[in-house]
Amino acid sequence: MTESKFDYRKILSKYSIVLVLIVIMIACTFANSSFLTANNLINVCRQQSVIIILAFGEMILIICGQLDLSCGSVIALSGVLSVMTYKSTQSMALAFIVAIAVSVAVNFLNGLMVTKFMTPAFIATLATQTMARGAALYITNGQNIYEIGNYTIVGQGSLGIIPIPVIFMFCIFILMAYMMRHTCWGRSTYAVGGNAEAANAAGINTKMVTMKAYLFNGVLVGIAAVLFMSRVNGGLPAGASGYEMDGLTATIVGGTSFTGGIGTPWGTVIGAFVVGFLGNVMNLMSIDSYIQQIVKGAIIAFAVIWDITSKSRQTYKKGK
Predict the structure, then answer these.
(1) Is residue 250 a contact partner of residue 55, using CB atoms and an 8 Å limit?
(2) What CATH number has the domain bearing residue 314?
(3) Are 59 and 249 in contact (CB under 8 A)?
(4) 269 and 52 in contact (C-beta within 8 Å)?
(5) Residue 9 is assigned to a structural domain of this protein
(6) Is residue 184, in this structure, part of any structural domain at all?
(7) Nearest by Cα to 52 from 225, 279, 265, 303
(8) Is 250 exposed, middle or buried (0-12, 13-18, 19+ CB in 10 A)?
(9) Structural domain of 110
(10) What total of structural domains would you count in the chain?
C-alpha cells in the first residue's frame, strides 16, 4: 500500500507541469472563445518557438549551474548583422552563419569570463548584455532595417499548416532530448550542476563542460535571432528586449532547478507554453501590458520558491 502511494506521488510530481498546462488551456478556453481556434494556436506556436529555442539554451546553462542574461541583446546584435548580410548577399545560408558566429563569439566571451576568470555568470552575462545591445544600436545608428525581402520566409512561412519556426524548434527539441540523455557531455552537465566538486573528483573537466554549454547556447541564440528578425520583418536593434527573462521563465516553470542538476527538454517546452498561453489569453482579453508583467514576475517568483522548497524538503527527508 505504501509503495503504491509512493509511486502515485512520484508520477504526480513528474507530470504535474502537464496537468498545469491542461488546466490552463481549459481555463483559457472558458475565458475567451477565440483562444482555442486553429489560427490563434498556430500563432502562439510560431511566437513561442523562438522563446523555446532560447529556453533550451538557458536550460543547459542552468542545469550546469550557470545562466545567460545576454541572449535578448545578442539576438538584437546577431540578428541585425544577419539582416545586413542577407541584404548584401541575398544568401540565407550566409545570414544564418553570421548570426550563429556572432552569438557563439559572445557566448565564448561569457564562458571565458566564467571559467577562466571565475566571474559569476550573473555579472558576466549582464556585462555582455549591455555590450551587445550597445553594439547593435551603434552598428545601425539606432535605426531599424526594413525591406528585407525573402529573409522573412523562415520566420513567417509555413510548410502546410506547420510554421517553419515550429519545425526548427521541433528538430532542436529532438537533438536536445538525445544529447542530454545519450551523450557524455549531456550527462556531464547534470553532474557538474548537481555537484561540481564531485564531478571534478570523478574526472569530469568542469570548465570544459561549462564552456561547451555556453558555446551551444550561442548556436541556439543565433538560430533564434534569425527566426525573430524574420518574423518581425526587419532588423530591430532594440528588439527582443526582455527575451532573456521569457526564456528563463519557461525554463524554471518547466521544472529546471535553479540550483542546477535537474531539467528536461520536454519540461521546458511545456513550461514555455504555460507562460505563452497565459500571455496570449491576456492579450485576447485586452489586459493591460503592465499587469501582464506583474503576472509574469509572479510566475517566476512562485516557480523559484516552489523549486527551492521542494529541494529543501527532499534534503530534509534524506537527512532523516
Answers:
(1) yes
(2) 1.10.3470
(3) no
(4) yes
(5) no
(6) yes
(7) 265
(8) buried
(9) 39-319
(10) 1
Residue that has been written with the C-alpha cell 502537464 in this structure: 18
Q: In the numeric block, which cell numbers belong to residue 209?
A: 563542460
Output the nine-digit C-alpha cell for 120.
Answer: 559569476
How much is the pTM? Answer: 0.93
Domain-embedded: residue 295: yes
> From CA 7, how far away is CA 3, in angstroms rounded?
6
Report yes or no: 134 and 244 within 8 Å, Cβ to Cβ: no
Question: For every one of its 320 residues, what pLDDT tens digit does the chain have, with 9 covering 90 and above?
Answer: 444 444 566 666 667 888 889 999 999 999 999 999 999 999 999 999 999 999 999 999 999 999 999 999 999 999 999 999 999 999 999 999 999 999 999 999 999 999 999 999 999 999 999 999 999 999 999 999 999 999 999 999 999 999 999 999 999 999 999 999 999 999 999 999 999 999 999 999 999 999 999 999 999 999 999 999 999 999 999 999 999 999 999 999 999 998 899 999 999 999 999 999 999 999 999 999 899 889 888 888 888 787 777 766 665 565 55
Whether 2 maps to a domain, the answer reads no
Say if residues 105 and 123 touch (Cβ distance below 8 Å): no
Pick the closest to residue 139 from 83, 64, 196 (CA basis).
83
DSSP-assigned letter for residue 152: G
From start to end of the chain, where are the E strands?
158-159, 162-163
Element (H, E) at 218: helix 206-232
Q: How far is the CA of 265 from the CAs of 48, 63, 228, 269, 270, in angstroms?
A: 14, 11, 21, 6, 9
Q: Enumerate residues 6+ apart whose C-beta is below 8 A from 227.
A: 49, 50, 53, 154, 155, 165, 168
Q: Which residue has the cell 529546471?
A: 256
